[in-house]
Oxidoreductase domain protein (Rhizobium favelukesii), 344 residues
Amino acid sequence: MTELKGALIGCGFFAINQMHAWNDVEGARIVAICDRDPERLKVVGDQFGIDRRYSDAEALFADGWFDFVDIATTAQSHRALVEMAARRNIAAICQKPFAKTLSDAKAMVEACRHAGVALMIHENFRWQTPIQAVRKALDAGAIGTPFWGRFSFRSGYDVFSGQPYLAEGERFIIEDLGIHTIDIARYILGDVSSLTARTKRVNPKIKGEDVATILLDHENGATSVVDVSYATKLSKEPFPETLIELDGSEGTIRLTQGYGLQVTNAQGTTTTDVSPKLLPWASRPWHNIQESVHAIQQHWVDQLKRGAEHSTSGADNLKTFALVEAAYDSAAKGQTIDVGAMLR
């Protein structure tokens, strides 16, 4: 089939990974880039050989000649850019967090639905090789019916050195990291009916919370705990690994530090190395996330060509976004929140 042409809006910190991944994706390539910062535009344009460069998104869309747009900007600009793409009948990938508010996110989904164009959120964590391995083991019936889970990302890694803006927001770890971990919980154990959350700020140099513990009640009766921290100093730094524990009616699954997948059931215990690949342009310890960027972008292209729904479509991600909002609401009120009511 014809190669799809894409445009990237936003040439910041994480967009470099997306550009590298687009170079490796089969069936698509980036033909234009856009950023308000002329220096970033030049750096990315020169590095990846992109001649079409824009400082204004309206001008980019006016010129056209691309099939999809990859929006790699911050949440404040997402609604305007997604709706701009919908008006031009251009399919869109949008970086997480999806929007600043749930109402904005719902409006973006509706705009793309009305225009008949695909919208996918760049929720790449569920596409990590070890997370996919957990899902495959579960789908194969290795532990029967799961009834309990824990999804943990606890680290003392200095994320603020590379992304200093993270220290400035009133919200931090749930919105930036917990959103991924919650999405993994949904992906593995299904949708959530209610949740209870507690947060804490340990680092006095930041404005938002850097620790969160969230109890999820899943619609299928399972219970899980999502716990995330950037204030946890360990003898062996696990960043950026998500660790998973699952208990089922016929056994257990443990995704341990160092990418070991341990499955215990009536046949005994097996341990498998589910380490991600170190792509030529990737670097440790980021390679786990970098590989997942390539995986989700390949998924985007494959599904777009098939005309099929994406795993992290805008409609699907509304459910993850609602859990983020519910977590902040629960922590503020000290109450359990009915998630279903937020989506109605």
The chain has a mean pLDDT of 97. The domain at 4-117 is CATH 3.40.50.720 (Rossmann fold). Residues 287-306 form the longest helix (20 residues).
